[in-house]
Fold this sequence. Notes:
- This protein has 182 residues and is of the alpha+beta class.
- It is 13% helix and 32% strand.
- The chain has two domains: 28-144, CATH 2.40.50.140; 152-182, no CATH class.
- It has helices at residues 7-23, 38-44, and strands at residues 50-62, 66-73, 93-99, 112-127, 130-144.
- A five-stranded mixed β-barrel has the order 1-2-3-5-4.
- It is elongated and about 75 Å long.
- Mean pLDDT is 79; it is low at 17-21.
Amino acid sequence: MSVRIPFRVLIAAAATALLGACASAPQPLQGSFLGVTPEQAVVGQQIGASVRWGGRIVETMPGADSTCFQVVSTPLNSSGRPDSDSADAAQGRFVACRAGFYDPEVFAPGREVTFVGRVQSTESVRIGEFDYRLPLVAADVVYLWPVVSQIRVVADPWGPWGPWGPWGGPWGGPWGRWGWGW
Length: 182
């Protein structure tokens, strides 16, 4: 006995699968990670934990063999991008290092970035007059997000001709004042 699935159900399933694919993280950011914030990692000593953290770059420091980034951490959305709606909900800072050169002009302060890696240790950093302990991540992935420009579009509900359309209503338009010519 064969089971016939209605075409509508197949279309709905395909649409759901496509929408689900749109909401997932880019391939380099996928995986399972420990749900710990940088603040919790310093307190709990989560050395060796696999993490996916992101936020806004504070400073990019190229070295001889690697580049380190100091980042203000923010929650990530479902695609792994720092959530712009929760920019004020900082989760502390962290330092992420990756082998190779990353240009500080490209990885400029304020840019959104996501890292995948392991918590390697903690390091003491001086910020202003304060000494902070920050988790140090040995990054396997450095994902710089493109800049998003938000444009507000306000549409005129009447279009360029006003509420009467291209005919101008009873007061004018291309056919004259009353629609009979000039």
